[in-house]
Amino acid sequence: MITLDLETTGLDPVKNSIVSIGAIDFDSGETFYRECQIRPNTLVDEFALKVNGFSLEQISAISKKPYPYEIVSEFIDWVQKFNDKLLSGQQVGSFDIPFIRYEFDNYLRPQVWPFGHRSVDLHSIAFAKFKESLSLDGILRELGLYPEPKPHHALTGATLERRAFQLLLS
Length: 170
Fold this sequence. Notes:
five-stranded mixed β-sheet; single chain
């Protein structure tokens, strides 16, 4: 299982852009982290930047940073070395995967989508245990862990989500 977390410029994968990808292999603990510049003509939600701590200058300046499709391609290459390519995370199926899928469908075809159609959602697993809808910080608190440091960081999020999965699934 690969625990995945993204930072983006908003909630819509068509209008907004990935700014970073963080992932961790559930079994080995090996990590992946990349940042990118945003796609041209991307909408940027000020609140999203407040959450993830990126500045408008960091994400929009033409730089040596790759574009989102390039870091998605690197992520897919990184995942290939693991036997289990099942993606997991906090609301991964409704947020993170659609952003990855948008870049894949629009820039990386004709490759074959390597992740299948299933994912494991931390929110759902936690709901089954605690019988209430909880944010990541709420789940961490219920498990006796510290909340995620602010601003949100993709690799920190993926690491904490992996730890929560470990505790919930043990």
